[in-house]
Amino acid sequence: PPPPWSPALELDSGTVLFSPNAICQFFFLARGEEPTDLTNQWLEWEATELQPAALAALYAQLVHGRKGLEAVEVLGKLLAHIEQNLSRRGTAYLAGDTKSVADSEIGVLRGSISMTLSEACRKAADSVLMPKALLEFKSYLQKQPPPCLAMERATSNEPEEEGSEPTLTEEEITAAVDAWARGVAALPKPWQPQKPVLPVEGMRNVLITSALPYVNNVPHLGNIIGCVLSADTFARYCRLRNWNTLYVCGTDEYGTATETKAVEEGLTPQEICNKYNTIHADIYRWFDISFDYFGRTTTPYQTTIAQDIFQRLLARGFLLQDTVEQLQCEDCQRFLADRFVEGTCPFCSYEEARGDQCDKCGKLINAVELKNPQCKLCRGVPVVKPTQHLFLDLPKLEEQLEPWLEQSWATGDWTANARYITRSWIRDGLKPRCITRDLKWGTPVPLDGFRDKVFYVWFDAPIGYLSITANYTDQWERWWKNPQQVELYNFMAKDNVPFHSVIFPCSLLGADDNYTLVNHLIATEYLNYEDGKFSKSRGVGVFGDMAKDTGIPADIWRFYLLYLRPEGQDSTFSWSDLMLKNNSELLNNLGNFINRAGMFVCKFFGGTVPDMVLTPDDKRLLARVTLELHQYHQLLEKVRIRDALRCILSISRHGNQYIQVNEPWKRIKGDEKDRQRAGTVTGVAVNMASMLAVMLQPYMPSVSLAIQGQLCIPPDCFVLSHNFTCTLPPGHRVGTVSPLFQKLEHDQIEALRKRFGGGQVSGYFGAKQTPPASVTLTAPGDPQLIQELTEEVAKQGNHVRQLKANKAEKAQVDAEVAKLLELKKQLALAEGKSPEVLVPKGKRKK
Amino acid sequence: MAAAARPGPEELALLEKLLGLPKGNKYGVQGERKVPVLQTNNGPGLTGLITIAAHLVKQAKKDQLLGSTAEEKAVVQQWLEYRVTQVDGCSGKEDARIILKNLNVHLEDKVYLAGNIFTLADVLMYYGLHHVMMDLTVQEKEKYLNVSRWFNHIQHYPGVRQHLSNVIFIKNRLYTNAH
């Protein structure tokens, strides 16, 4: 079989060497030079230390676009290691006085590093230095998962296991203490924009859009996290930073699919749109999405603005005319859009292939290639007729597109996938794109000879951002024709990237009217559902309208979706993980901390925040929290929403530890000094809770509001700065404190999993299994048996806990525990795991 | 917990015993990755699992464990490197899955990692994968059939397993047409 690793050296014997180090060693061995301890040591060092660091540096520079020196910082230490060894030994080569395998291998890597360095010096290197090869290398890197260095682990998937904490400097501690002491004065005043929100001179003006959802689909959780929820979280963050922010979205309503749906449901297209627009709006309201305006594309403004852009493109010579062969149904008197035709797939002979795609083999089809085509409406046989269409001349616009892209990439935050997808689109060569369609449901084309046609959805839909804003304010041009003052963020799933990075910018560049073009293009990967894809037709997955029927509050959904936001790579929704994260992160960590902090104020200090006398330990905590806060800002400024959420959780983890170590509930009963200590700890903790309420607001607005109510946080504190400050000073009265989160129970989650379909319980690879034909129930891997045993283990576990709680006799408890262990053993056997894992030994070794 | 080999000094001690070397080497660890270091009487000592392991093999005069021909030696080197870069760098089930998949392809037509001879690569890969294999379910062990066969073989190779838990592989087919 071909090696999964390449490039590689294949020897005559068929042996494949895929490691560059092994290949080099082979050459040296072939020349009769045996490896020594020293050459081995260098090779191992190269593979485990230098290579990962070099890869990380290249990745940082090429993919993340970091500046040169910052990117190669990690390499400095390693190169110094080489330097030091060479000078200490006083030899010419790494392992002695003759050149060895170690030298050649490390030399190669150094070569690529110095290339990186020189590149960093010269900004223009991209276009001078082998641009083609570099691009290929770059796109190769982009396909690789980002390299993970020990020192960079902080932002990886599961930060639960905290490594060594960064050390705090004296300056950091002093600064944190100063900021704390300044209290509310350290915070800027929250800024309330006038309505409608318009750009303000001298302020940071942020315009946020999320991809317009197509009207006749009910959005699923993947759509929600990919677009509206991500954009909402960011918009809320921007507002808390006092940036002047406008967030708009709406339903995309024109096109074939709506027309088809209308025919199916016996309604007019407009009626279909009205019906589904309401469904969308309801779902987003339930999820607490803070649009400044949620509109739709079927408005008179859409027609005026789209036609204006069209006229400008026409006048500037960016439109072409061409003839297209298309199917026409003579009975219905119309050209058939792709979805109005069905026939036999030319590739797999599936008989019900659609005009644009075969559902069976998935291949894209040109409608005229279908065998035995049929009109979907009257079942008549359509004929092929030539028809005139208009095309956007992308090749001609490319010379404007490229410099703009370069500029936008250099100054803005585009996610790696957005850069990659855009680059590969351009590399494959831009072709003229048809912008008209033979449909009725759309924006009419204002040109003689085309008056019975409408604009094709991908030309029309992004113009919706402008027309929706126009429906919000008649001064919409102050947002959309104002690149000097406005920063534009587009949020979307990755399948939408080319329309926002290439086609729409080309339309606007060609129309040449000082339009605001995207500065930051934020694209997510996909969210999968329990080992499969969300699928409406197969009834798999949770859709927006069903989420509220689960009984799980919207904020919990928001939290979990943002916690697994497919940032950088696909992620998977799983019910048991939802339960786990709710119970461990929200209930036991965040909720527990905030609740305890508030309760202590109520129980021990009559609801009044006590006096605080900070010890060096407290001061270090202030600095530690400040550090997390800075990290939170750094990540959110780069729209790394998921990673920033981890900072919130780690602050509350610090808080829990702080309470645990200082035990205010014990000290409150002690002498004067102890009581003072209890007061300080409680005061610091409740102030941490107060700041967490603000930091949490973009993620969980209702929970944030609840905390604000319980702790009576003044509205003036609802603003984000870079300081952790004392917002609830001694003497501040808190309100009634109550738990913020509820435990999710296993039974409840299992019921939901069953209700919404999807993966089975056993095996994290989700391997399909055929039940045994002739084997008895004891066969490992039997899902039914596993299920039964799991339930029994749970039941017996409860029984034992109850006995213990009721202080039953030891002998009885022991007997029941033995039964429990036996059941667990059986379960392990049934799952095929090695049973001894579960057998307790006298003393457990960790 | 059942006995598992922790990378570093612990598995070097296992290796010493397997090679029949007397005890008495002193090991330390270095850096965040806890890279093992062997203190020697002369010179600055040796750093790195592979480096030390190869040194021990030569000390025990069992050089055949590093391969006999140039080609074998290179292959052994390559899998040792795979062990310290990929297996030790493995974080999470997704990474483990990729490693098992790659090894499964490689082992499809081989008895040992380097072909037909038992080498140091097999020993260290076995120690490195032990905790991964312990956690697999029957279905997964079947999915990576070649890895399972190889692993079972190595754990029964005289002197290799020592106090580590025996990972159970059920050899009879329990259900038909697994795929």
Which key features would you list for this structure?
heterodimer; A: about 850 residues; 5-stranded parallel β-sheet; 4-stranded antiparallel β-sheet; about 50% helix; disordered C terminus; B: about 180 residues; globular
Structure description:
The complex is a heterodimer of chains A (846) and B (179). With 846 residues, chain A is α/β, with parallel strands linked by helices. In chain A, strand 8 (341-344) and strand 9 (353-354) form a beta hairpin. Chain B is mainly alpha-helical and 179 residues long. Chain B is 48% helix and 7% strand. Chain B has 7 helices and 3 strands. At the A-B interface, helix 1 and helix 2 of A face strand 3, helix 2, helix 3, helix 4 and helix 6 of B.
Terminal residue distance of chain A: 41 Å
Number of strand segments of chain A: 18
Number of helices of chain A: 29
Structural class of chain A: alpha/beta
Share of residues in strands of chain B:
5-15%
Average pLDDT for all residues of chain B: 85
Instruction: Compute the CA-based radius of gyration of chain B.
Output: 17 Å
| pLDDT < 50 runs, ≥5 residues of chain B | 172-179
Mean pLDDT score of chain A: 83
**Could you give the order of the helices and strands of chain B?**
HEEEHHHHHH
SSE topology sketch:
The complex is a heterodimer of chains A (846) and B (179).
Chain A: E1 9-10, E2 16-17, H1 20-30, H2 37-62, H3 68-71, H4 73-89, H5 101-121, H6 125-128, H7 131-143, H8 170-182, E3 205-210, H9 221-240, E4 244-251, H10 256-265, H11 269-286, E5 293-296, H12 300-315, E6 319-329, E7 334-335, E8 341-344, E9 353-354, E10 371-375, E11 383-392, H13 394-411, H14 416-427, E12 433-434, E13 436-437, E14 454-455, H15 457-460, H16 463-472, H17 477-480, E15 486-493, H18 497-511, E16 520-524, E17 527-529, H19 544-547, H20 554-563, E18 571-573, H21 575-605, H22 616-637, H23 641-662, H24 664-667, H25 672-696, H26 701-711, H27 746-755, H28 783-805, H29 810-831
Parallel strand pairs in A: 3-4, 3-15, 4-5, 15-16, 17-18
Antiparallel strand pairs in A: 1-2, 6-7, 6-11, 8-9, 8-10, 11-12, 13-14
Helix pairs in contact in A: 2-4, 2-5, 8-22, 10-11, 12-16, 12-18, 13-18, 14-18, 21-23, 21-25, 22-23, 23-25, 25-26, 28-29
Chain B: H1 9-19, E1 26-30, E2 35-39, E3 46-47, H2 49-59, H3 70-87, H4 93-106, H5 120-134, H6 138-143, H7 145-155
Antiparallel strand pairs in B: 1-2, 2-3
